[in-house]
Specification:
The protein is α/β, with parallel strands linked by helices and 308 residues long. It is built from 10 helices and 13 strands. The structure holds adenosine-5'-diphosphate (ADP).
Length: 308
């Protein structure tokens, strides 16, 4: 992650209401240039609504929004923004009568300083299919062409709505490394995803939404801590002994100690074992997975809202 660059997205109190029903309620969101931020949350959380306001596709009801310093809610500024922003929508909208290369050429013609269309195809490994009609592409190939189209204008900011849905594992990995390269070149990226492993691999920061509000915003490590992301120390003993401070003894004889301070607790445990003369067998320390953090955040409803 790099904060050498400025803010690509700066939203405060972003709110969208239909009638008197707010579906996005006071969301604060920042993405720096050179940073990947993932928007996570269950269906109906307000992710798409949020991203569409930032893209200028939907009006906000309240809040302050700046995208590359401009307000996407103002038509004149929205037009200006289009030159510097790349968008991959959830559903691809390719022209079925154009070839792969023709599609990229057409898109490139909208920009002043586009990439060479063949170079854009090279980035997503589609050069061998340049002459293919887009309707003949597989779902995964269409997804990669969507990315090439979003990139050909050399955007400073990319919006990706579920960019790897429908890709096979290999194509997902190559898309990830490719997005990371863009990030390293200073592009800001805001993506929505249903895949927690994708958020974990790709994003510098995660924003978890539920019911239109932000539940949590931070790095994976920060979210761990925020969900009382205790590390879990487990072991068995060479002979049964009551263990001071142990929270649980499982039926299979495994002792479980939830720890906020792993070095101190492991040290105390080793000291205790040496003193009473037992061996700690199969000693392990596990961090909660992002999945567990996410479940505890969204499962807890609004219990942890307001945390940053
Ligand atoms: P997500 O992308 O997280 O699944 P959305 O942003 O699509 O969530 O939707 C958030 C909420 O807004 C949902 O409850 C949805 O039903 C509601 N919503 C979306 N569009 C409209 C609309 N045009 N009128 C009324 N409610 C809407």
């Amino acid at each position: 992650m790099s904060h050498r660059h400025g803010l690509a997205i700066d939203a405060e109190g972003l709110t969208v209401a239909y009638g008197d029903h707010a579906v996005v309620r006071g969301v604060d969101l920042q993405v720096h240039e050179g940073e990947v931020v993932a928007l996570l949350g269950p269906n109906g959380a307000g992710k798409t609504t949020t991203i569409e306001v930032l893209e200028g596709l939907r009006r906000r009801t309240a809040g302050r929004v700046r995208v590359l310093g401009l307000d996407p809610g103002v038509p004149e500024q929205r037009r200006q923004l289009r030159r510097d922003v790349g968008v991959v929508l959830q559903k691809s909208a390719l022209d079925p009568f154009l070839t792969v290369l023709e599609s990229v050429r057409q898109r490139a013609s909208y920009y002043r300083l586009p990439l060479d269309p063949v170079d854009a195809l090279e980035l997503v490994d589609l050069v061998p299919l340049a002459g293919q009609l887009t309707r003949r592409l597989s779902g995964g190939q269409q997804r990669r062409l969507d990315l090439a189209l979003a990139l050909v204008g050399r955007p400073r900011l990319l919006f990706l709505d579920e960019p790897t849905t429908g890709l096979d594992p290999e194509a997902r990995r190559s898309t990830w490394s490719f997005i990371q390269r863009l990030r390293d070149d200073g592009t800001g990226v805001l993506l929505t995803t249903h895949y927690l492993d994708e958020a974990e691999q790709l994003a510098d920061r995660l924003l978890v939404m539920s019911g239109g509000a932000t539940l949590a915003d931070g790095t994976h490590q920060e979210l761990d801590r925020l969900s009382q992301g205790l590390a879990r120390i487990t072991f068995t003993l060479s002979s049964q002994q009551p263990v001071p401070g142990c929270t649980q003894l499982l039926p299979d004889g495994t002792h479980v100690l939830d720890s906020r301070d792993v070095p101190a607790d492991v040290h105390a445990l080793l000291h205790w074992a040496a003193t009473v003369g037992v061996d700690l067998v199969d000693l392990q320390v596990k961090r909660p997975s992002l999945e567990e953090v996410y479940m505890s955040l969204t499962g807890a409803g609004h219990a942890s809202s307001g945390a940053t």
